[in-house]
Amino acid sequence: MSSRLTPSQPLSKPILLGSSDTLKITLTTQEGKSAKRPHQAFLLLQDQDGKLDVSYPFSVKESGKAKVDLTQKDLPVQFLTSSNDTSGLSASIVIASFSTTPGYNSPAFTLQVKTDPNTPAPPAERPLRYGKLPEIHHVFRSDPRSPPKIISLVFLAAVVGTLPLLAGAWLALGLNLSSLPKAFSASPLSHACFLSSLVGIEVVFFLYYTTWNLFQTLPVLSVLGVTAFLSGSRALTEVQERRLAGTR
After folding, report:
1. Radius of gyration of the chain from Cα atoms?
2. CA–CA separation, 11 vs 5, rounded Å?
3. Is the C-alpha dihedral spanning 209, 210, 211, 217 positive or negative?
4. Which of 226, 230, 238, 232 lies closest to 184, judged by CA?
5. Residue 43, strand partner residues
6. Residue of 94, 101, 118 whose CA lies nearest to 41
7. What are the pLDDT digits (tens) for 7-49?
8. Contacts from 61-67 at CB under 8 Å and sequence distance 24+?
9. What's the per-residue H, E or C state across 162-185?
10. Which residues, other chains included, contact 220 with Cβ-Cβ below 8 Å and sequence gap of 6+?
11. How confident is the model over 53-112, as pLDDT tens digits?
12. CA 87 – CA 90 distance, rounded (Å)
């Protein structure tokens, strides 16, 4: 069944929409006598009391041709009640744009929804309501705990046990402690700062493991790291100069 819509003149007879029917509305929007695509165009359905309405946008092309399809599945559950079966729904077409041309908002027809009596209506979902929610109780994790002392002592013994191996490797590679006075006399500040910064870094790590937190450790560690880099570069340069001169 097809009906022709006339602007500002609603149809005299209601349009029936059965459970297996599809309502198809096609129209062409114009500005003056030329077709033009509006900013928005939609079909507005309202119950007779005006307490509930829902809009369905038209699919509009640049040529102004618009189309919208509607079935019972697209309707809210409230529109499928028995009261709307008799009174019908008011269907209006709304067209608007940003131009100076006045918009269009006029009833087009009455939609009569005919539901299948043998098919129960789907249950209405509870609408979302914004309001006070139950209080949220945050449960924070407990502070990290240190491992048992026995594990720490085992790893400490393992580290200390490598020191004799390290000293033996240095002696095997030709450690020359007699060059220390010459190194400190050639560049005393760089060697002293380099060795002191290395010892200081180890002390900072020990304090971080025992008492300090991360915010206390990072500033001190940054200063010692920069000092070790600058002084170590100068100290190693001095060692290289003695090596090239053959005095190391």
Report:
1. 43
2. 7
3. negative
4. 238
5. 56, 93
6. 94
7. 888 888 888 888 888 999 999 888 878 888 888 999 999 987 7
8. 61/37, 62/37, 63/28, 63/35, 63/37, 64/28, 64/29, 64/30, 64/35, 64/36, 64/37, 64/38, 65/26, 65/27, 65/28, 65/35, 66/26, 66/27, 66/28, 66/29, 66/41, 67/24, 67/25, 67/26
9. HHHHHHHHHHHCCCCHHHHHHHHH
10. 200, 204
11. 899 999 999 888 999 999 988 888 888 765 555 678 999 999 988 777 888 999 999 998
12. 9
Residues in the chain: 248
Q: What span, in angstroms and rounded, lies between the C-alpha atoms of 204 and 219?
A: 10
Helix 188-210 vs helix 214-245: crossing angle, to nearest 10 = 150
Both tokens of 206, joined, read 């020990």
Give every strand in the sheet of 23-28, ordered side by side.
Answer: 23-28, 65-70, 59-60
pTM as predicted = 0.50
Q: Are strands 104-113 and 15-17 parallel, antiparallel or unpaired?
A: parallel
Reported as type and span, the H/E element at residue 96 is strand 89-96
